[in-house]
Design goal:
By secondary structure, the protein is mainly alpha-helical. The chain is built from 4 helices and 3 strands. The protein is about 40% helix and about 10% strand.
Length: about 120
């Protein structure tokens, strides 16, 4: 279940917002911890506008790139249904976590190589 702070269901509210802004060509941005949402792809695959996912899915890197929610995000990215902000590594200062963040960034970048072409 996706909830705003305070418990308001996020998916239904976000879907309503997405439908309202679709006519403007806008997107909806999410700051969400993908580790807690293994069904991320199934829940968001038919969202009415593109998604922008903040901080590479905002999950602890200990979950790894094989975490179901992260894999769902990568699938949406590969399908062109979302964008991923490659940011947020400042949340960790541990050297071993910085290298784990690199693997998360690499995984996200490898899915949409065409957007990095010169």
């Amino acid at each position: 279940m996706y909830s705003f702070k305070g418990g308001t269901p996020l998916l239904a509210k976000a879907r309503a917002i997405g439908k309202r802004v679709a006519r403007f060509g806008w997107h909806v941005q999410l700051l969400i911890d993908l580790a807690g949402h293994p069904s991320f792809y199934e829940d968001w695959k038919d969202f009415p506008v593109p998604l922008v996912i903040d901080h590479m899915g905002h999950m602890a890197v200990s979950h790894g790139v094989g975490a179901p929610g992260f894999k769902g995000m990568l699938r949406l990215l590969a399908e062109g249904r979302c964008w991923v902000k490659l940011s947020g590594t400042y949340r960790s200062s541990a050297l071993n976590e910085n290298s784990a963040y690199r693997s998360v960034r690499r995984a996200a970048c490898s899915v949409r190589k065409n957007i990095f072409a010169k």
